[in-house]
């Protein structure tokens, strides 16, 4: 039965790990079933700090990729997979999947740990509680800060927006 992909990212991951199935304790494995909505279903950049992942595509055409560590110059490796293809995401590497096909994608993955952990990069960096200081993010992400105001004539109010841009940006007003 397909998972619900009617969410903001268009994907659903059903995990079977030691928390869901205590009988896996000491086996050193976890399994996930992944469903992606047609074109655009995404598993955002994330990492598993305790496991290597082996992905098997059952249906669809996902674009998958991972980024090597800083010591390896942060190289990006990507590949479009098809039904029956297998892809390995090395332990701890930031990786993602995007369905670029017009049909749903279904995949299974095995992970080399009964508790692989998952860190979704954007959620972790931008959703921490309390938030990471904006000066830290601005410098770490090499952004420049830009402030601008928008006047709303229907409410006679000015809204001040602080935006962060990396390097150059083109802003158009309509």
Quote the distance from N terminus to C terminus. 45 Å
For the sheet with most strands, the description reads: 5 strands, antiparallel
- Report the C-alpha radius of gyration, rounded: 20 Å
* Uncertain stretches: 148-152, 168-174
Strand content range: 35-45%
Q: Looking at the structure, what is the overall shape?
A: globular
Total count of helical runs of at least 4 residues? 2
Order of SSEs: EEEEEEEEEEHHEE
Structural class: mainly beta
Q: What percent of the residues sit in helical stretches (DSSP H or I)?
A: under 10%
Q: Whole-number average pLDDT?
A: 84
Please report the total strand number as a whole number.
12
Looking across the biggest beta sheet, what order are the strands in? 1-2-9-4-7
């Amino acid at each position: 039965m397909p998972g619900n992909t009617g969410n903001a990212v268009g994907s659903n991951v059903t995990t079977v790990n030691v928390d869901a199935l205590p009988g896996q304790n000491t086996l050193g494995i976890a399994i996930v079933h992944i469903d992606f909505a047609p074109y655009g279903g995404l598993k955002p950049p994330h990492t598993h700090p305790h496991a290597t992942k082996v992905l098997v595509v059952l249906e669809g055409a996902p674009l998958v990729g991972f980024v090597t560590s800083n010591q390896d110059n942060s190289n990006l490796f990507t590949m479009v997979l098809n039904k029956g293809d297998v892809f390995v995401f090395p332990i701890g590497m930031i990786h993602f999947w995007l369905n670029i096909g017009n049909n749903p994608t279904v995949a299974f993955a095995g992970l080399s740990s009964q508790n692989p952990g998952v860190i979704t990069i954007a959620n972790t960096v931008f959703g921490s509680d309390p938030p990471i200081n904006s000066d830290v993010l601005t410098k770490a992400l090499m952004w420049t800060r830009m402030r601008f105001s928008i006047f709303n004539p229907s409410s006679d109010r000015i809204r001040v927006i602080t935006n962060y841009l990396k390097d150059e940006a083109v802003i158009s007003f309509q």
